[in-house]
Amino acid sequence: MKEVAQAAQDSYTRIAATLIRVTGNWTLAEDCAQDALTAALERWPRDGVPDNPGGWLMTVARNRAVDVLRRAAVEETKLREMAMMWEPAPPDDRLRLIFTCCHPALSLEARVALTLRTVAGVPTAGIARAFLVSEATMTRRLTRAKSKIADAGIPYRVPSDLGERLPGVLAVLYLLFTRGYDADGEPAFADEAIRLARMLATLMPNEPEVPALLALFLLQHSRRNARRDAAGDPITLDRQDRSLWDRAAIAEAVEILGRTPVEGPYAIQAHIAACHAGDETNWRSAAEWYDQLARVQPTPVVELNRAVAHGYAHGPAAGLALLASVNGAPEGYMLAVEADLRERAGEKAHASDLFRRAAAAVPDGPERRALLKRV
């Protein structure tokens, strides 16, 4: 039922965050929030959608938590707190939940999984598929992560060292997005990352990297309908049908960037993505932004992409010159970039051999098939 799905998107995080704050019990909070959604699926088709769907879900979840706590003979003070919980969680509760799930004491994998389960409400089975493990294994990992939060006394609050902790939160959202955006990923995870970034941008309007990350997600995801051919293999940017791109998402991202100062790597990456958003790519501008990104984030992958941008902006020779200084990038991608530059330089035989070697260096799947097509 679409009304339940919409209410879940709007209210699930608020409900879970409030119940965690009041009860201190992560599993109870998640179970009661899910029970409320199940009740909505049962009752709303029969009784009609309530005037305040989020408030209805909060009330049902709260009452369910009160029943469970009462049966467990929890102290009366806890019950009184629950009985007073009539309104949805204030924004700070959602921030507390996000920063707790993304605490640096947890492994990066645990942070992503816990964010998916508790903040986004993704079923454990779906998370398990994304991590290529069984549902039972993922359940154990989530349980260990919650236990570590309790045992280590990780505080359920927005940290005072926000400048130090926020990049870690954004990195979790970025990894979540890529798990949905990659060729073998869960597409719904990209949508969840966008939703969470949008929520975080609303809660933290004075942190420029947050809306910048949202703009980056929107620009990347706008190309989702043009990134695969009929066989599901990747189509390179220069060969995509741009009429299939989501122009509304692009317009929103460009508007965000127009009012957001450039203060970090996500803003720079978003501006690079925006260079591709027109009828054709502005490669000269992209190369300039990559120069700036390489100064801020001098990783092998950034340097590799910088060589690509310069190769398109200033000719294959310029790209090959930069490529020669790249160290540490994955072999398959290095070979693929050189192959593309050699092909555009007219060295067809050399390029064909490089594409073949690049295909052999990546795992079997869509990327390998796409490289072999280039051969």
From TrEMBL:
Lineage: Bacteria, Bacillati, Actinomycetota, Actinomycetes, Micromonosporales
Protein name: RNA polymerase sigma-70 factor, ECF subfamily
Keywords tagged on the record: Sigma factor, Transcription, Transcription regulation
Domain RNA polymerase sigma factor 70 region 4 type: 98-149
PANTHER family: BLL6612 PROTEIN, BLL6612 PROTEIN-RELATED
GO molecular function terms noted in the UniProt entry: DNA binding; sigma factor activity
KW Signal (keyword) present: no
The RNA polymerase sigma-70 region domain, residue ranges: 13-72
Domain DUF6596 intervals: 165-259
SUPFAM superfamilies attached to this UniProt entry: Sigma2 domain of RNA polymerase sigma factors, Sigma3 and sigma4 domains of RNA polymerase sigma factors
GO terms classed as biological process: DNA-templated transcription initiation
Protein family according to the UniProt entry: Belongs to the sigma-70 factor family. ECF subfamily.
UniProt keyword RNA-binding present: no
Protein origin, superkingdom: Bacteria
Source organism (scientific name): Paractinoplanes atraurantiacus
